[in-house]
Amino acid sequence: MSSSVAKAGGAGALPPAPSATPRKSVIGTRPWVAALFLLPALVLLGALVVYPIGYSVWRSLYDSGGSHFVGVDNYVDIFRDDQTLIAVRNTAIWVAVAPALCTALGLIFAVLTERVRWGTAFKLIVFMPMAISMLAAGIIFRLVYEQDPNQGAANAIVTSVHDAFTDASVYPKARPAIGSDLKASGGGSFTTKQTARAGTPAFLPLVGIAPDKVPGSPQNAKAASTGGDKVTGTVWLDFKLGGGGTKGAVDAGEKALKGVKVEAVRGGKVVASTTSGADGTFTLPKAADGAQLRLPGSNFATAYNGVEWLGPALVTPSIIGAYAWMWAGFAMVLIAAGLAGIDRNLLEAARVDGANEWQVFRKVTVPLLAPVLTVVLVTLMINVMKIFDLIYIIAPQPSQDDANVLALQLFLSAFGGQGNFGAGSAIGVLLLLLVLPVMWVNIRRLRKERQR
Q1: Among 244, 279, 299, where does a domain finish?
Q2: Quick one: 216 and 252 in the same domain?
Q3: What is the strand order of the sheet 269-275 is part of?
Q4: Mean pLDDT by groups of 10 residues along the chain of 452 residues
């Protein structure tokens, strides 16, 4: 009877055994299907990342030709070679300065653009350099930092500001003619041996400038008039195209030197001064009678040509400035996105409690933006460790060694003529080891974000 009840499917019947269907993942996909879709990505990852890393580690253990095993000698040479040590030092400077500078500028821009009417347009302008490649940016700043103020925008600005507060020299290449009474008297000045006499014109001939290179539209020189109780004279270019004439005398066709400062010196003190006119003549008061005439060095000082931006001392800071011009917009956009997500009630509450704007920024805004600032800082730190093309293009050959970084040294060692692939691979592995701690910090941060 019990068997008949079981067959009838009564209350005492056992539940049917579960079917042996394949187990699906949380997202409803079989594991082998997920693995099949991931396979192309894994193949590319292995071919483009894992294999190059493994081959670089293996190649770094061999000599430049790859035929002899040298162990860790290539790694030891990194810290023995002066050029590579400069690259290590400069890389450390880049990592310490460039990300912090870009992040700070991005934070300032993001906060200030919230308070201006044309904030969106300003953000667009600041972010625009991100659309330019490193190659193009390098070419742009190579021209910006050109030493010649007539070509380099940076020195054009610097020289304009300098000349606004300091008188520029009139004729930087001029010098007294041979046989002239003018002799060097220190500080770039020239002083006459003879003393000036009222009523007797003094002739101060100069050479060293081509007649067609005299600034402005010079007039023909004129001999100063004689007589009277004042000291007169002429400053002119004692040379003319085609030659001819008498040395030390004002000849027809010789050009006047306008604006030359002339001082009357007696006992080491300046008793009178004036400047030459358009025809080269000058007039000093009676007090100059019996004094020596001096042309101060300010008339002949070399023109100020600005700052040597790409010299050994400033080449690295100058290139960091070019990098900040490109990447400050990137930092600004990310920080502005984080700023938009801040609860404005917190800011208003701080203001109601009596905090000023600086206190609100420092004690409320910045702490709330800390996760975003960390993302920007870590991203830029990884980016600057592999900086190469900007330095390679901007730094001129004489100062390229002073601007050298590890990525550039890797290129120069392996492909820049040295052909030492062992040393280049060792530098590549060193760069990987330097990036790993930063990546580890970034991964930890991401895991903490997921746990919140």
Answers
A1: 299
A2: yes
A3: 182-184, 190-195, 292-295, 261-266, 269-275
A4: 46 53 58 86 90 91 86 88 90 94 94 84 90 92 91 90 75 83 87 89 88 83 84 89 79 88 91 92 90 89 84 94 94 91 87 88 90 90 90 91 92 82 90 86 77 68
